[in-house]
TrEMBL record, chain A:
Name of the protein in its database record: Regulatory LuxR family protein
KW Transmembrane helix (keyword) present: yes
HTH luxR-type domain ranges (all copies): 402-467
Alphabetical keyword list: DNA-binding, Membrane, Transcription, Transcription regulation, Transmembrane, Transmembrane helix
GO molecular function, one term: DNA binding
Species this chain originates from: Alkalibaculum bacchi
From TrEMBL, chain B:
Originating organism: Alkalibaculum bacchi
Record's protein name: Uncharacterized protein
Domain of life: Bacteria
Amino acid sequence: MNRFKTLNARRLSVVGFSFLFAYILSFQFEGQVLYSLLNLRGTEADRYILAAIIAHFAGLFTCGLFVKSQAAAKSMMFGGMGLCLAATVPFFFAPSSLWIGGLIVSGYFSGCVVAAWGFFLRAFAPKNERIKSCADVLIYSNLLMVAVNVVAMNRSTFIGLGFSMLCLVIGMVFIWMLPLEQENEQNKTFKNKTHGGIKNPLILLCLFIFIITINSGLMYQVINPAFEPLTRLVSWYWAVPYIVALVIMRNLPMKAKRSRILYIGMAMIIGAFISFMLLGRNTSDYLIVDTLMLGACGVFDLFWWSILGEMLDYSDNPAQTFGIGLSANVFGVLCGGVLGMTVTSIGLPSAEVAVIALTVVCVTLVMLPPLNHQLVLLLKSHAYLATYDNISQSQQTDIIRQIKILDPLTVREEEVLQLILSGKSNREIAGALFISESTVKTHVRNIFSKYDAGSRAELISTLLKNQRVE
Amino acid sequence: MKLIRKRRNRYALSLAASIYLTVWLGKAFMLEVVFAFGAISLISLLLLVRQSRLLYDATLIWDNRILAVPSALISMPGPQMKKDTGETVVSTFGILIGSEIYRWGLDGVHGVRLHTAQIDKERMYLTFGDASKTTRVELLHGMTEKQAILDAAQTLLRETGVTAEIINWK
């Protein structure tokens, strides 16, 4: 019964958020509806687009400062969506200062709403299902966006705008229906069990997201305008490779090494920019470039959305963690957009654009291994610690005693091992035993060596495997 | 320890000087000399890295010392016996004899191991080594109270896993 309730709540939160996100993608955040409107009115698009993105970034980044509970998150989501709805109305009329004001308001509050959803992602999506929840919202919202785009670009921009707002209204209904749940006990337990906290992995992840999405910004400003004459095709095909990539990633078995797929994603970005440089601007060329570029975007977007989703368990404020993580994405798009505008204004050849994009890819390739290490350290260790913590004290001691090791542990090493298994960081262990951190590191290395393990996660995994055998 | 630090500083100085000379001579286009000093820079860098690692190990041994004495008597297999006048430090992670470092259980299970420990009224005898070579060290421990001896033995067991045999105490 309880599980059924959670399942329903999860569906409600996914559907509600998908409708909200469809509005953001089709209108507020570089949406085709907004571009069509600006085109229709013959208005210079750049300042509107930049204002909307900067406001959205600010909303994502600052939401955690004033949304600190699930109830506040629900209020923010519902109220924020209402404000977005009101701020979109002026776009039915001739351009005025209300347009720029509306974009700033809707940009800021849509950012806050997205960040606030972090509370519901954590509360209603089970730990191993977060990747699926994230994939679902991205797939549904993009399908809705394609439908709105097709209407806006092939029928009427204003009908498209109406559909965008309808998405927002439907989203509000679903968010209104969301139940408020008590904080999951497990979240409370593991929040404070972070080896040095989530700060380092989060900073590294944000840096990675920021750098890789510079290419998305370049894509919006350089690649898309080059294929503008193919309106009919672009209106429906634009997001198809993205959705296909998400579906594939979503349905991969849990054992699949997703980190390898990131390298495939990198190769796809490289391929997209090289194709853009070498090919022409007709239909088949567009299909190749867009498939490679948007397919890669799908891979990367799901990667960091799901990682952020997993990180929520170790955060005091999910809105803050989720918001800051996604703000790095928006900031990357913003910087890439500015770069793209500059490139377009000075008429840089496509070959040089490709070189810029490839440089960005090279930097991200260098960042991937340390990022992977940091994330494994955080997420895998915690997953194992969660399991280990559920075992009774006597069973834990038995496991440690029974396991075969290459060399017996000294009394001091046993003390250090116990502290490792209680989730303490090297610094905390040093403080507890009144020894230096380098001494702890040496003990930890020796313990790993005696258990033939390469990391904390592997060590605890070894202990748990031993327990299953018993 | 001091000797290791001095050597480290010397190599650092040599590296800085050779890099400076390489750049300075490079500006004057004296290519042959630049190559020579470049090679010296590279060698200095390698020596500096090695010495820095030795200093790290020595510091680790010093920070986790169980017993520190002014000198030790070392005996190897065979007839030779040598007296080392350097300060000797026995610790959780190894033994430091002057500027010689022996780390036991380097990374847990490899390399030099501490095999036995014996303590009498005047001396502590430690036997350590790897599969190919065993070394015995005699230290004048300077402890007069039995309790101090027992504490040292206890610490040795706790930190290294080796039980010290206390001999000739009544």
